[in-house]
Amino acid sequence: MSLSPDKASAAASNLKPRGSSQGGMRQYNERVVLQAIRLNGRLPGAEIARLTRLTAQSISLITKRLLEDELLIKETPLRGKVGQPSVPLALNPDGAFAIGVKVGRRSLDILLVDFTCTVRERWNLSYSFADPEQILTHLADCLVKIKAKLSPHLWERVQGIGIAAPLHIGGWQQLLGLDADVVARWERFQLKTEIAALTGLPVQSIKDTTAACVAELVAGRGRDVRNFIYVFVDTFIGGGLVLDSHLHIGKHGNAGALGSLSLGITGSANSPQLLNVASLYKLESRFIAAGLDGRATSDERAASAAYWPHTQAWIAETAPPIAFAMLNSSCLLDLEGVILDGCFCSAVKEALIQAVVTSMQDFNWEGVVPPQVLAGTIGSDARALGGALLPLYANFAPDRDLFLKLDG
């Protein structure tokens, strides 16, 4: 599926939210106003009218309703100009909440996100491999903590849960040394259905790396880059695809699946995939073989003196195949940029990006314009944050189709 280019993208920075001053458009116009403030920050009524092309009278009525619904708050009046001081309006952080759940192969992340997309609380659970029952138990414990932190009034404003998880979480069994019983349980387990039954909240789901791409599109560099491949390095490397500021997920929800890109040209079924050489499980293996903690892949220890030689060796092995993937993607899509992020510290990310840029020079780009390689801005929270954005945007963004059809 690709999102219709003739609809306003709720995630794009170049969105110019335009409403209609005719009757019968209240809900849509409210969403347009909320989106204008979300994209531009606090705004006085006159500026909202200019951006949305709604009349001053319409803006007055709409913002009055949004203030009454506690979705907007008034900030300190702006003084110093002729006439009455203007009163900026801003999103009320307590206006709505969502819960983002990232189910990974090595860890579970749960975020409580407010109406401004700020992470209020986070919980993390690490494991050797995801077990369905363990995930439900931990989520249930976190829900108790979330309810304890939110008053009953605020709990009613929780819009739902967004799940970010691999499409085939039980896949690559031999590569990761997975227990056959756990894999069999995942084949029988309906994650979305079980979480909905556990929580009683609306639940939406999305592929984990696509969720990370959503977070970057909405809250990161996607505001400035219209056409990009998103690369996220985790246990397995993966990605997402954004064209004309619209998320594309493909017929099977798997567009941008860079990890499955073949690195061979012989036609052999045994040709390695990108994930076989450019994933964090390879760095984890290097650490363990050296007698170090494999879990250090996701924290600053990976850049410390004891770990750095092994990290450098992994970067040297990883950068060329990522550059190769960028070349092939650019030939097909004529990309503006590649945004690279991952579940690692900033020092490792910066070193990997520099190595990828250097490796690009070893390939023949004749006839193709190399894309700019940019660092992602969200980091490890990207997948869970992208999940939390699903219910928030479904309920409050003017482009109602932006994330609603991801499960279809």
Automatic annotation (TrEMBL):
Recorded superkingdom: Bacteria
Question: What InterPro entries would the database entry show?
Answer: ATPase_NBD, ROK, WH-like_DNA-bd_sf, WH_DNA-bd_sf
Q: Which organism is it from?
A: Iodobacter arcticus
Q: Which Gene3D superfamilies match?
A: 3.30.420.40, Winged helix-like DNA-binding domain superfamily/Winged helix DNA-binding domain
Coiled coil stretches, renumbered? none
User: Do you know which CDD domains this protein is assigned to?
Assistant: ASKHA_ATPase_ROK (cd23763)
Designated name of the protein: ROK family protein
**Which residue ranges are recorded for the region named Disordered?**
1-24
